[in-house]
Amino acid sequence: MRVERDFLVPVNGHVGPVVPLAGMTAAAIESWRQRAVDKDLGVNIEQIAAVLREAAARAELLADNSRDVFESDRRISPDGLNEMKLVLESLLNPSAGPKLAPTQEF
User: Fold this and answer.
1) What one-character-per-residue DSSP string does 20-67 give?
2) pLDDT digit string (tens) for 52-79?
3) How far apart are CA 24 and CA 101, in angstroms?
């Protein structure tokens, strides 16, 4: 729940009146991306969608600690989500801070 609140609130606060994000599932993020990508929202929708997908994946790994045994190369610390939240905030407010490098992938 916290992950949804931490990521949905900022996205919907910025672009929600035009294109609301309904959830943090892969399907919800992809549906939002498809609806938002052609709108002039003043933000990079593709980068935001990538951050949302990565945050959702990290949250899933954190929620299921038993997966660490099988996916030890993808161990996520709780700070990893805070990092993603900061990246999201910088993408939603490009004039407030450094932008994510266009070539950086999550």
Assistant:
1) ----SSHHHHHHHHHHHTTS--SS-HHHHHHHHHHHHHHHHHHH-GGG
2) 999 998 888 877 755 555 555 555 566 7
3) 23
What's the first-to-final CA gap in the chain, in angstroms?
A: 22
* CA atoms within a 13 Å half-sphere pointing along the CA-CB vector of 51: 30
Q: How many CB atoms lie within 10 A of CB 78?
A: 8
Long-range contacts of residues 75-83, Cβ cutoff 8 Å, at least 24 apart = 81/3, 81/6, 81/55
Query: Residue ranges per domain, the chain?
Result: 2-96
pTM, 2 dp = 0.77
d(C-alpha 37, C-alpha 33), whole Å: 6
Q: CA torsion angle for 85, 86, 91, 92 (degrees, to 10)?
A: 70
